[in-house]
Amino acid sequence: MDIEDSSQRPDSVQLVLHKGVYDVATSALKRVGVNFGDELVGDRGDGMLIMLPPTLSPPVLLRELVRGLDDALSDHRRAHNDAYRMRLRVGLQTGLVARDGDRWTGTTINELHQLVSADEVRQALKAADHANMVFVVPDSLYTGVVEGHHPGIDPATYVPFDFVTKHRVTRRGWLTVPGAPGAPDDLAAGGRSGTPGPPRTPGGTGGAGMRFENNGTNHGTVVQGANVHGNTFGR
Asked: Is 125 exposed, middle or buried (0-12, 13-18, 19+ CB in 10 A)?
């Protein structure tokens, strides 16, 4: 999970948001059935990476995590004025990770970080001023879980986009804006920048992918690990 524009806020506001993102994560994980204190957390200052147990059902995790985060962010907004408003970019992923003491590494984490930091993900959140968050998953999780039409998960609310990593590898991600009536209009209509990728029609939903250059470092995912075999969501 990554807090939007955290580094641009005054120190006193950053302190409140740092505490707030932990409160939001605790509330959301409780809805999933996980005790936040029992999990492995990587603090990123303006966000976090959390490893979750592999016993969680991916459809249940995806559905309840999105709902729980959106509800908790709404509660935070009602309790604070606009200066302390907190909006998130959140990614969820499953895959292999390796543990080295208190550090976690792996291609799965790196790819999700790049995905959550992608320009189109940032733009989608900025364009949706009403929204609390943008939620993004890689293509593998979309085809493996979202497309399954599980209860409470609507593939029609997800929009695809392609991006090129700093290592010149093309990846595809899918994003949704909780609370929006449908897929984000700017991406569904072709986005504001980039070259359209190949069309795709998943589960009855049409949408052209987007391609753009991304040289930044991302923040956010959920991982299923080898040394840590589990799910994870984070900055």
From this structure: buried
Residue 196 backbone zone (phi > 0: left; psi -120 to 50: alpha; other: beta): beta
DSSP character for 70? H
Question: Which has more confidence, 145 or 43?
Answer: 145
Q: Which amino acid is at 95?
A: G
Q: Considering the entire predicted model, what is its pTM?
A: 0.76
Per-residue DSSP letter, 84: G
CB count in 10 Å sphere of residue 231? 28
User: Bridge-partner residues for 170, per DSSP?
Assistant: 164
Whole-number percent of the chain with pLDDT over 70: 75
Q: Which ranges of 80-224 does DSSP label H, i.e. alpha helix?
A: 107-116, 119-127, 139-144, 185-188
Contact in structure between 23 and 16 (CB atoms under 8 Å) = no
pLDDT at 187: 59
Question: Which helix (H) or strand (E) segment is 133 a member of?
Answer: strand 133-138
